[in-house]
Amino acid sequence: MAVNTGQNAYFKNLLSIAGTQATGASAAFSIPFADAYTFYLNVTTAGQTSMDTVFQTSVDGGTTYVNVPWRFAQVTTATGCFVLNVCAGVAPTMDTTAGTTASATIGNGLNVLGTGGQLCLQSIVDPRFMKLGMTVSGTAPISTLYVAAWPRGTRVTGVE
Fold first, then answer.
1. Dihedral angle at the C-alpha atoms of 74, 78, 81, 82, nearest 10 degrees?
2. Is residue 4 part of a domain?
3. Is 66 helix (H, G, I), strand (E, B) or coil?
4. pLDDT, mean of residues 148-159
5. pTM summary value
6. Domain span at residue 42?
């Protein structure tokens, strides 16, 4: 009898970013409700200057979108794949002696900007209503955003 130690991942192409993308937000998209997400921003053609990205969610069913503290490192003139991992639940405390790290909030009421360094803090999102906010300097890098999600309770079919 085979033992399954993993779960089926859900993969989806969320959006494509053209070199003509201006500062603003993408079209709305949805992601499945899951315990963990891995987002891939695959940059195939570099832009002229830079692009900062921040995920957004709607707290009122798709009318108003707000920034959540999930963002990639700044994309500059390099191509390649940028990766952002997000997990559900409360993160454990950071234990620097054991070498483990976890995302942790740094305070309440902080403004979440769409620019800056890589950041992944705890946040509540509605996965049915998501956007990717972008601050573009120059020409946006041509890229595609993908998600891999690991929903709770999935099963691998054909494994007994």
1. -10
2. no
3. strand
4. 59
5. 0.74
6. 13-91+111-150
